[in-house]
Amino acid sequence: MPRMQxxxxxxxxxxxxxxxxxxxxxxxxxxxxxxxxGLQKSVLSRRNRLLLYDCRGMWKSAHPAGPYTMELHADxxxxxxxxxxxxxxxxxxxxxGGEVSMAFALKYPQRxxxxxxxxxxxxxxxxxxxxxxxxxKAVVARSADMFFQASYWMNFSAxxxxxxxxALAVTAQRYQDLDFDALLELIDCFSRFNITGRLPEITAxxxxxxxxxxxxxxxxxxxxxxxxxxxxxxxxxxxxxHALCVEKPEVFNTLVAGFLAKYSG
Length: 265
Prior knowledge:
- This protein is an alpha/beta fold.
- It has one domain (about 5-125, about 190-260): Alpha/Beta hydrolase fold, catalytic domain (Rossmann fold, 3-Layer(aba) Sandwich), CATH 3.40.50.
- It has 11 helices and 8 strands.
- It has helices at about 40-45, 70-85, 95-105, 125-140, 145-155, 160-165, 165-175, 180-190, 220-230, 245, 250-260, and strands at about 5, 10-15, 25, 50-55, 90-95, 110-120, 205-210, 235.
- The radius of gyration is 17 Å and the shape is globular.
């Protein structure tokens, strides 16, 4: 399992696809791991060099003490790219990973070929803070079952939940292995995040995607991003909830591949 010592910590990463392809980085949502991109990996690595990794505090990477910030995550990614000899890349992510990607685009604009944002926000409003507050209470209680019950219905559409009960049972079991201390740092990092005032500074070509039925980080946040980032494209995916790459992988992959084709070279 490849791990790299960067920025004072060890990060787990996976790198696949043609060695001469332009690099596409995908950063995880807060509860995701590199394995969560299984429906994207083979498709998006056909023409691009695909870099997947776990942020600090996530799964196979180091779980150092906090506090974490999105800027710190951006520095970690920059250091990982340095160690891998990658000067520039297409930078993307979903949810928490989208927020990491925006922080990276603001701090390292010269390293961003394009920016791909899915199911993500530039700040929290009162509703989102309340939703995430229920997650935090479950984490403070160190209850995997409580955390699953507080979160799963926000992450998927009702139709997907009904059709995928066995997959949800596996997810619930996986949450038994969560590092609650690290997860609390990730949640608090997200809760402090606010870059709305800086969105016009993003210069990279940007794709913004959101599921029509996303109740965690819904359309209003995506419209804010697309309205403030110069030239950004907005796509609302019908019938999809928050976990867009899982619920509608074919649509997600087609949108990303098409966007990359426009901004490669």
